[in-house]
Amino acid sequence: MSYRNRTLSEKKRIYQKLGLVIAAILVVCIALAIALRPTKGNASHNASGTQAVEGMIEVDGVKYVPKKNIETYLFMGIDNMGKVQKVTDYEGAGRCDVVMLMVRDLTDGTYKTLSIDRNTIVEQDTLDPDGTYVATSPAQLALAHENGDGMEISCENVVKAVSNFLGGQKIDGYAAVNMGAIGTINNLAGGVTVTIEDDFSKVDKTMKQGETITLTDEQAVHFIHDRFDVGDESNTQRMKRQEVYKAGLKDNLAAKCSEDNTYPLTIYDALGDYMVTDISSQKFSKLALLVLKEKDAGTVSIAGTETVDDLGFVEVEPDADSLQQAIVELFYKEYN
């Protein structure tokens, strides 16, 4: 049985037996983190006479400094069709099927989004449901939410894992929505129109490949959530569908919000039973209206190598160069 499918008690015994191995892994990870960490300190001059500023990094001979006027929000889609509830069982919190980061650049009124594959291997904490720390180890990002209470503890564990994965970048807020809310969201948007590019015949024969349709609430669940028995069954293809849906959803909600600037509050209230967030209703409303007006500067991605373990579970090892490029694009600007 793989580590990811063991019970919490079994994991604890593994940690006790393999403490030295885990320690060695952590030493390597810490060394890598130090190597990739941006240089900090007061302004100074290097050997070549070039002025160095706080947080400056150099990539392929080009110097970059942190963007100062940005806001970063993490959005999670949790593989749980029910309403949110606090759990006491380790397996009951649900996993992240969708992990999306939005970075707003307030200087030029733009935003970019980063979708992180749920199968990406990241350093994360293993926790008891009450939040008690057990250990830190590499595992699929999807599992970070499963470690915790299904509420704030789980969400904060994902936030920490994503922040560390991106070199310690600050995340200003989060919202985790159970997949059971997909129908509600689709209904609020009046249905999202998409072209069916994958074969859905095994899950819904009305979703015919090649046709452009306005998704019913039930079809929206299949389009966004389903992976098995759909197309090539890959999470990569599902992420592409989610990007398509996101674009259509934004257009529909933008139209509704232009007619009624209180509509974001309607969305917030409708999601209440399915959402855990540290963003207040007022902040959510303001953020939604601002994003709808701001320019979408595109989607950033991180390349990785996909492998399958002995039990058939997919793991994605992120490419170090691609990860660094994504961090630079989202959080840094070229130093002039």
Write the SSE topology.
Layout: H1 8-17, H2 19-36, E1 44-45, E2 51-52, E3 57-59, E4 62-66, E5 70-78, E6 96-105, E7 110-115, E8 121-127, E9 133-140, H3 152-165, E10 173-178, H4 182-188, E11 193-195, E12 212-214, H5 217-225, H6 235-259, H7 263-271, E13 275-277, H8 281-293, E14 295-300, E15 304-308, E16 314-318, H9 320-331, E17 332-334
Parallel strand pairs: 5-10, 7-14
Antiparallel strand pairs: 1-2, 3-4, 4-17, 5-6, 6-7, 8-9, 10-13, 11-12, 15-16
InterPro entries: LytR/CpsA/Psr_CW_biosynth, LytR_CpsA_psr
Pfam families: LytR_cpsA_psr (PF03816)
Protein name: LCP family protein
Briefly say what this structure is.
The chain has 336 residues and is α+β, with helices and mostly antiparallel strands. It has helices spanning 8-17, 19-36, 152-165, 182-188, 217-225, 235-259, 263-271, 281-293, 320-331; strands spanning 44-45, 51-52, 57-59, 62-66, 70-78, 96-105, 110-115, 121-127, 133-140, 173-178, 193-195, 212-214, 275-277, 295-300, 304-308, 314-318, 332-334.
